Amino acid sequence: MDIFRALKSYYWQDKGFLWGSVVGLAIATALGLVYPLLLRTLIDDMIIPSEYSGVLGLSLAAVGIIFVKAGFQYVHGFSGGRLGNRLAYRLRNGCYEKLQQLSFSYYDTARTGDLMSRLTADIEGIRNFIGFGFAQLLNTAFLLLFGFTMMFFIDWKLTLMILAIIPVLGFVAIRFEQNIHPVFRSIRSAVGRLTVRVQENITGVRTVKSFAREPFEINKFVKENTDYRDNHLQLAGVWAKYFPMIEFIANLSVAALLLVGGWRVIDNTLTLGDLVALTGMLGLIVAPLWTLGFQINNYTQSKASGERLLELLNQPIAVKNNSKALVLDNNEVKGHIRYEDVSFRYTNRDDLPSALLGFNLNAPAGSVIGFLGGTGSGKSTAVGLLLRTYDVGEGSLTLDGIDVRHIELASLRSQTAIVFQESFLFSTTIKENISYGFPNATSEEIEEAARLAQAEGFIRELPLGYDTIVGERGMGLSGGQKQRIAIARALLSKPKILILDDATSALDMETEHEIQMAIRQVMAGRTVFMIAHRISTLRRADEIVVLERGHTIQRGTHDKLVRQPGLYRETYRIQYADRPEELDAQVDASTKASERRVTG
Ligand SMILES: Nc1ncnc2c1ncn2[C@@H]1O[C@H](COP(=O)(O)OP(=O)(O)OP(=O)(O)O)[C@@H](O)[C@H]1O
């Protein structure tokens, strides 16, 4: 019940419906128990003494009870439906909001399929239980309470005899619950894994097909599917054991009542009407006991679902606003960025050394900073810290002298725009994709951004132009076209700080050059961080930082770095090997002379 207490904030505001559902069902149940009493009156007071004058009144009373009972059943159904659906609605919103708040670090290990199944199947489990299952469990409890009380007043000795069986039933039910709960938990996570398989396979279908790994993928799926099937077989095994047991015990009580009760009727210590009423009531009580298994099943299933939802809802948020977070004034932000002795290690990768070590950088407002380095050298980590994708471990990182950890997240991120190497497009129009970060942009502004990102030409050629739907359910675009839309998206908001994380890698040199020119124009006086593997992308930067395994190994302008032996010049030589005249013009003669002295 702790799980449902923890979820109280999602349904307690509808406690009126909760009570409506519970009270409606309690009254309908109690009214149902009146039938055997009417039958007793019919037999003992009318049929046996042949007094038929009251039969009409009795029949009318029975019809009246049917109507009232139906009314209360309606109240139960209506309230339960409202309660369950409102709860599911709030839970879905709550989980989705939580997913928006969770930091980048959560998504490093989260699996899409698993999250999807939490937001669908698990919420459905909770909706069923809180809306109906809970009231049905209570119904069983009411039936036991009201039924045995009435039976007690008819004949307490027979009632006590039957009551002795109830603890046995209770014991079996509790054992069942204990056995079935872990099975349900593994079924839930097996569903999650199965969904992950399907989702990953569909997302990565191109890779799967191009490597002809379909059989491997099928094997992986079959393994998960087998696991899922085995879990269900285990479930069926528990059911198969439990059902006959509970039915046997329940029928035993009816048989005992008929045997001892029948004996007493023959003995004249019990009226026939009493025996019929007792049997009728016991039948009413035993019927839901047979479904107690289903009800407990429903309860455990929703408990397992509740656990998974609470795990998501209670997930700590790694990067969040502190209590005195500063909201930046748009007009005041200059874009001066300073890293001082910044070190950072990914907490989920303790096996790796720090991704960034003692990193220093002073980027005055309006400067263009380039980053070069091998894969995994820490470039993305360095720029990501600025957006607070993660918070810096040691050292400080400031924007206009303010530690970024003290700046409100949304306010900080609204000053920056980032273009990743992998551009993500939403399943909507090109227009909406470009204006994603700036929804109020006019068509002219959107088109201007597209022009600057060199995207205008190919967009115009599409059948519906800016209204063409792209993304998962839309037109396929090339990698370079997607990158240009992502660049347009970033340029549209005219951010104070622009981060290009290998954002032009899919473009040809000429297009890249034109985009660079446009960026210079839009970003004049604004700060630009540019990660690239091409020297041509970086050469005009005010400062270029060369990273290796998290360490800064070189820094300076292009002109300075091509004169120094090191990774930058090596990269330059490799990339310009087919244009030696350019290489020679760049590399200072004196450096060459000194090198000759050293080597020669
Ligand atoms: N989200 C993450 N969780 C754990 N480790 C990470 C994560 N992102 C990066 N790393 C690790 O941190 C180190 C630096 O990675 P980073 O992405 O900053 O390198 P990079 O220079 O940008 O590489 P690339 O040029 O390939 O994009 C690498 O060892 C990488 O494996």
From TrEMBL:
It is a multi-pass membrane protein. Keywords: ATP-binding, Cell membrane, Membrane, Nucleotide-binding, Transmembrane, Transmembrane helix, Transport. GO terms for cellular component: plasma membrane. It is found in: Cell membrane. One of its GO terms (molecular function) is ABC-type oligopeptide transporter activity. The chain crosses the membrane at residues 17-43, 55-75, 126-146, 158-176, 242-263, 275-293. Residues 337-574 form the ABC transporter domain. Its main location: membrane. It comes from the Bacteria. Residues 19-301 form the ABC transmembrane type-1 domain. Pfam families: ABC_membrane, ABC_tran. PANTHER family: ATP-BINDING CASSETTE SUB-FAMILY B MEMBER 10, MITOCHONDRIAL (PTHR43394:SF1), ATP-DEPENDENT PERMEASE MDL1, MITOCHONDRIAL (PTHR43394). This is ATP-binding cassette subfamily B protein. It comes from Cohnella lupini. The lineage of its organism: Bacteria, Bacillati, Bacillota, Bacilli, Bacillales.
